[in-house]
């Protein structure tokens, strides 16, 4: 239960904050037609995320790393163009074209954020069922309850972020929006670098590598920054509501003013509550929910020469997960896994790492292969194919009762295990 509470919160709360803040900005600055454009683009993002989730988890047609890389790259380019359009629209206040373009870019960026953030959330019930025989099992119901609680927190966070942003001054809302987009850009840039390294599209350099590792290991910090920005805005608005001295002409107008600021205080308190709950979920609850998983030991391969690693069928024909490794000249241990597929004579073979979670590894639980970082359950039949959280595909041959893995196919992923 706690596991999926934390996982769903970590996956979607930043997305909810960004959506809430940006749509709040749009509400107080855009015309009705422009607001409608942003709304439809966000809806399109949700539809696209559901389609992406299906192809990632139910088919082998999607290379997750490449797809994510495209989303990252397009999002970063869109952010740069948005900044240019925003500056022009500010200087040319009478230009309806650039003002309309500004909101189109805002809606497009929000759509990309949803398209990247939601596929994993859509897939969580499917991953739960891979481990359970029925939806009526206690474990499934508890995990589903944890996910539902997290989604409630995320939805309330969205409305709180939207409600408080609609009540700040337009310039303050613009600053909040840019902070959220910068946080998103920092995360997406790290993801893009990671994909470029993995696919050998660019040669890694020290600065890019260190940046990618830092962001990957400290992604929660960016979530906390977004929450803190929201809490600061809530405190400011709460203080304003207490000190407000708006003039009024009659008792009816006075009641309207008091009701407006009373609602502002409620949204401010809601922001404080959801922010604190979000931070507690990602720190304290995350800590108590974690159970230390010890990966199975690395087994000795049948033979290793200058070109290949050899694994006899007899070592891996029991249907369980087996882990092997090759140590490079740089003393980097590159791990790969082998498991015989159920009701088949074929084997699932891949790196002990994936494009999404890196080299955290996989372990066996109740006959299923599970990602050690995100707890996603693999479909054993699809191990050896690209997509989702599946192990990174490596070349191999089957010959004379042996699995032959070329060392060259392992060494090219040496940077993944550093």
Question: What would your notes on this structure say?
Answer:
The structure is a single chain. By secondary structure, this protein is α+β, with helices and mostly antiparallel strands. Helices cover 62% and strands 11% of the residues. It has twelve helices and ten strands. The strands form three sheets. A four-stranded antiparallel sheet has the order 1-2-10-9. Strands 3-4-5 form a three-stranded antiparallel sheet. Strands 6-7-8 form a three-stranded antiparallel sheet. A hairpin with a 5-residue loop joins strand 3 and strand 4. It is elongated. The two termini are 33 Å apart. The model has no long low-confidence stretch (mean pLDDT 86).
Question: Main attributes?
Answer:
418 residues, alpha+beta, four-stranded antiparallel sheet, 12 helices, elongated
Largest sheet: 4 strands, antiparallel
Large-scale geometry: elongated
Compute the average pLDDT.
86
Spatial sequence of strands, sheet with the most strands: 1-2-10-9
Low-confidence stretches: none
Instruction: Give the helix level as a range of percent.
Output: 55-70%
Distance between the termini: 33 Å
Q: How much β-strand is present in the residues?
A: 5-15%
N-to-C SSE series?
HHHHHHHHHHEEHEEEEEEEEH
| Computed structural class | alpha+beta
Tell me the radius of gyration.
25 Å
């Amino acid at each position: 239960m706690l596991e999926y509470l934390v996982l769903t919160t970590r996956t979607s709360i930043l997305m909810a904050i960004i959506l809430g803040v940006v749509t709040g900005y749009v509400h107080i600055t855009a015309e009705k037609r422009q607001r409608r454009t942003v709304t439809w683009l966000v809806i399109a993002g949700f539809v696209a995320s559901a389609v992406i989730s299906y192809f990632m988890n139910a088919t082998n047609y999607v290379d997750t790393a490449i797809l994510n890389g495209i989303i990252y790259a397009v999002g970063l380019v869109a952010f740069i163009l948005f900044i240019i359009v925003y500056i022009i629209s500010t200087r040319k206040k009478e230009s309806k074209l650039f003002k309309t373009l500004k909101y189109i870019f805002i809606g497009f960026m929000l759509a990309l954020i949803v398209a990247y953030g939601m596929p994993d959330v859509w897939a969580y019930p499917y991953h739960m069922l891979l481990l359970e025989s029925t939806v009526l099992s206690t474990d499934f119901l508890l995990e589903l309850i944890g996910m539902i609680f997290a989604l409630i927190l995320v939805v309330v966070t969205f409305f709180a972020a939207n409600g408080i942003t609609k009540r700040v001054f337009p310039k303050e809302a613009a600053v909040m929006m840019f902070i959220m987009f910068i946080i998103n850009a920092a995360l997406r840039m790290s993801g893009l670098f990671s994909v470029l390294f993995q696919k050998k599209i660019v040669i890694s350099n020290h600065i890019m590598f260190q940046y990618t590792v830092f962001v990957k290991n400290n992604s929660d910090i960016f979530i906390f920054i977004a929450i803190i920005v929201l809490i600061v805005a809530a405190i400011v608005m709460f203080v304003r509501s207490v000190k407000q001295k708006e003039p009024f002409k009659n008792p009816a107008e006075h009641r309207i003013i008091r009701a407006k600021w009373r609602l502002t205080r409620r949204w401010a308190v809601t922001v404080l509550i959801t922010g604190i709950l979000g931070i507690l979920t990602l720190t304290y609850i995350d800590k108590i929910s974690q159970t230390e998983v010890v990966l199975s030991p690395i087994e000795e391969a049948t033979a290793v020469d200058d070109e290949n690693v050899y694994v006899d069928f007899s070592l891996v024909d029991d249907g369980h997960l087996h882990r092997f490794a090759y140590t490079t000249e740089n003393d980097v241990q590159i791990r790969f896994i082998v498991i015989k597929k159920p009701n088949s004579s074929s084997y699932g073979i891949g790196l002990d790492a994936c494009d999404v979670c890196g080299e955290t590894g996989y372990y066996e639980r109740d006959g299923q292969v599970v990602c050690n970082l995100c707890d996603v359950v693999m479909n054993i039949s699809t191990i050896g194919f690209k997509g989702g959280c599946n192990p990174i595909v490596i070349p191999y041959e089957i010959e004379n009762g042996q699995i032959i893995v070329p060392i060259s196919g392992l060494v090219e992923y040496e940077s993944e295990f550093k």
